[in-house]
Specification:
This protein has helices spanning 13-24, 34-46, 50-63, 68-80, 84-92, 100-112, 116-127, 134-147, 151-164, 169-181, 185-198, 203-215, 219-232, 237-249, 253-266, 270-283, 287-300, 305-317, 321-334, 339-351, 355-368, 373-385, 389-402, 409-419, 423-436, 440-447, 451-455. By secondary structure, the chain is mainly alpha-helical. The longest helix is centred in the N-terminal third of the chain and has 14 residues, at 50-63.
Length: 460
């Protein structure tokens, strides 16, 4: 849910702002009451136009020189521009400084000055007053702590407000947000479910619930939440695309395609939608369809790196290595620092039996990202094919250090040792490989057929 700013201004202030701006142009009268001037200041503050705020206040204080409310706004502008000392000084000069907004501003100023004990004392003055809507006081105070990224402080206030009023939906949203930030996902889920119990048609709660389940990789629950959100508002493009992403994770690629296309109808991001659809077709191994949609994306956005590499991968799968390399080169022009693109280029070179080129491309990829066990293993395999077994072993060991679960790596290490005539090590790694996968013996014999007698292995 999008963050809210306390002291939000109603859209009604837009009319006053228009009248003020017409006055500056000499097209309207120049009288505004204090409340109208406060609204204009808040409008400009929301837009970050602090200079305009200052001009409005100078003008306002000429009209209403004794207005404490406008002087409070002066302090708020100082606070917005980072001058906390002037903000505090302005508030302390007020003849009447016990109004609600002044207390809130002082709490925020003191917190920004690292005077937490004083801030807490002022906060408690507000918390322990006799007030009908004390839950909303807790909420306003929580917004201050949230603006300073003090989630523990915000949670304390929001939980206190929740004890007072357990049906304050706005407060519950903020509490759930804090729990999410603290990665207390079960607590956040419980809060969103409470919101839904209060208002079963609260689309935001259903959507946020889906988001938490998605992050937690509970995809089926996430899908159900997004579907409820879409039942409430079928025009919600964000819920639509998140539903499609979940279906993709659930490997429901055909339904995901339909959902992505529905998302495309809700937005103008045709090139992005085409990439998502193409990825689904790629997973379904319908490479021509995938290429069609990747190409469609490129028509809208010729510098779409994902589309270019997507086509390159599909062409690799179709063993169209020359064409694949052409698309990879275009992708590298867009992002020369992409380790993946250099790997795809290397794989195309392997398909063309250009092993030295492949080695160069793989090594360039490693220079961009050293944490690539599969790439290290691929390099080792090339060295093995070139009978450079010492170099192969070195790369296999590096790959194994990064990921000891690489498929058949112990078998390949065994082959390297065998070719180096180091039989004890070859047998040791082959036995380890067979324990991991019985097929390792057959693959070993394909690479070292003369080992049948020496190792007393049975050919399948």
């Amino acid at each position: 849910m999008s963050r809210k700013l306390y002291f939000s201004v109603d859209d009604d202030s837009d009319e006053v702002v228009k009248r003020y701006e017409l006055y500056l142009e000499g097209k309207a009268s120049g009288y505004f009451d204090v409340e109208e001037l406060e609204g204009i200041v808040e409008h400009y503050l929301k837009s970050g136009r602090t200079k305009d705020c200052a001009w409005v206040l100078d003008f306002g204080l000429r009209l209403h020189p004794y207005s404490n409310a406008l002087k409070v706004k002066r302090a708020k502008i100082y606070l917005a521009t980072g001058d906390v000392q002037k903000a505090l000084y302005t508030l302390e000069k007020l003849t009447e400084s016990n109004d609600y907004e002044t207390y809130l501003l002082k709490v925020e100023i003191l917190l920004k000055m690292d005077r937490a004990v004083e801030a807490r004392k002022l906060r408690d003055v507000l918390l322990y007053q006799d007030c009908e809507d004390l839950d909303n006081v807790c909420l306003d105070l929580a917004y201050i702590y949230l603006s300073l990224a003090d989630f523990d402080g915000a949670i304390y206030l929001l939980e206190k407000g929740d004890e007072i009023n357990q049906t304050n939906i706005e407060l519950l949203f903020e509490l759930a947000f804090c729990y999410e930030h603290k990665e207390q996902f079960e607590d956040a889920i419980a809060v969103y479910n409470r919101i839904i119990d209060i208002d079963a048609y609260n689309q935001g709660a259903w959507f946020n619930l889906g988001q938490i389940y998605f992050v937690s990789q509970e995809y089926q629950k996430s899908l159900e939440a997004y579907e409820f959100a879409l039942i409430i508002d079928d025009s919600d493009s964000l819920a639509c695309i998140q539903k499609a992403h979940v279906l993709f994770q659930l490997e429901e690629y055909s339904i995901a395609i339909e959902t992505y296309i529905e998302y495309g109808k809700l937005t103008s991001n045709e090139w992005e939608t085409a990439v998502f659809v193409a990825e689904c077709y790629e997973k379904l191994e319908r490479y021509d369809d995938a290429i069609f949609y990747y190409q469609k994306s490129l028509e809208e956005n010729p510098k779409n790196y994902d589309a270019l590499t997507g086509i390159a991968v599909c062409l690799l799968e179709q063993e169209k290595f020359i064409e694949s390399k052409e698309y990879v080169d275009k992708a590298i022009e867009i992002d020369p620092y992409s380790a993946d693109a250099w790997v795809y280029k290397a794989e195309a070179s392997i398909g063309l039996d250009a092993l030295d080129d492949a080695l160069s491309d793989y090594n360039h990829s490693l220079s961009l990202d050293s944490n690539q066990p599969e790439t290290l293993m691929a390099i080792a395999n090339i060295y093995l094919e070139k009978d450079e077994c010492e170099l192969a072993l070195e790369r296999y060991r590096q790959a194994l250090a990064l990921n000891e679960h690489l498929e058949y790596i112990n078998m390949f290490i065994s082959v390297a040792y065998y070719k180096l005539n180091q039989m004890d090590e070859a047998i040791q790694y082959l036995q380890l490989a067979i324990r991991e996968n019985e097929q390792a013996a057959s693959f070993f014999l394909e690479l070292c057929p003369d080992a049948v007698d020496r190792f007393m292995l049975e050919e399948n």
